[in-house]
Amino acid sequence: MGRIRGANYDEDFSFVSPVVKYLLFLFNLIFWMISMVMMSIGVYARMMKHAEAAMACLAVDPAIMLLVVGVLMFFITFCGCVGSLRENICLLQTFCIFLTLIFILQLAAGILGFIFSDKAQNKVKTVINKAIVHYRDDIDLQNLIDFGQKEFSCCGGIAYTEWTKNQYFNCTPDNPSQERCSVPFSCCLLSKVESVVNTMCGHRMQEQSFSDAGKFIHTEGCIDKLVNWIHGNLFLLGGIALGLAIPQLVGILLSQILINQIKDQIELQNYNLRHRSDPWQ
């Protein structure tokens, strides 16, 4: 208030910078549109699935994860868009608080994941095992696992024999499935000379020894491959983490600047109001 009382300002003067205001609005508008696309894809993918299959693997459903992230991003960016455009302190503070909480949670998750790497690895193993169980129940999950196995040249969680946990690939004698004791085709060693992918190349591979199966499929599990990839790409992961953190920090900084400017503007308006009613103040 002292800074306002001791200075003279024109009637049209405003502490609120249009550059900060519309930059924050544009920043939130971009991510708001991204959240709309994410929610649309999530809802569409969810509606295209059978209800029974969707409920069976709810915890590992990529469509649900996409939908949850989209809804959360939509709410936060909506507060930022409307708050900056309407110069609403309450909405801007909500936007800033949520963005700060997400940033702190991401930072804490990264630190805890690094400190408790063994527990994080066990958690990843649990998620992969659950995904293997529901491999045929969800087409999105199936495509995600196939993509991972192809990219990392791996098969299963610990080893290719873990595919016996799936009811279709189970190796028990009473399993009537034609895929009994097999593995998905994404486990197979792909030949560059083959023009057509042999989707049956993993047939009965669980009955083979590691050395024999290794001639046709990848026998190493995806968990070890994933851990090795993380250790070998720490700079890349650090760059991705920084790339995610910078927009959040920019959003927090811009919202705090705009909040302070709006508060100064409110003080100026109150001061001018009192000054007009009592010129001796």
TrEMBL record:
Family: Belongs to the tetraspanin (TM4SF) family.
Entry-linked Gene3D superfamilies: Tetraspanin
One Pfam family hit: Tetraspanin
This protein's UniProt keywords: Cell junction, Cell membrane, Cytoplasm, Disulfide bond, Glycoprotein, Membrane, Transmembrane, Transmembrane helix
Disulfide bond in keyword set: yes
Organism: Esox lucius (Northern pike)
Annotated CDD domains: penumbra_like_LEL
GO molecular function: enzyme binding
Main subcellular localisation: other
Transmembrane segments: 22-44, 64-85, 91-116, 234-259
Membrane topology: Multi-pass membrane protein
GO biological process annotation, one example: protein localization to plasma membrane
Localization, UniProt: Cell junction, Adherens junction; Cell membrane; Cytoplasm; Membrane
Name assigned to this protein: Tetraspanin
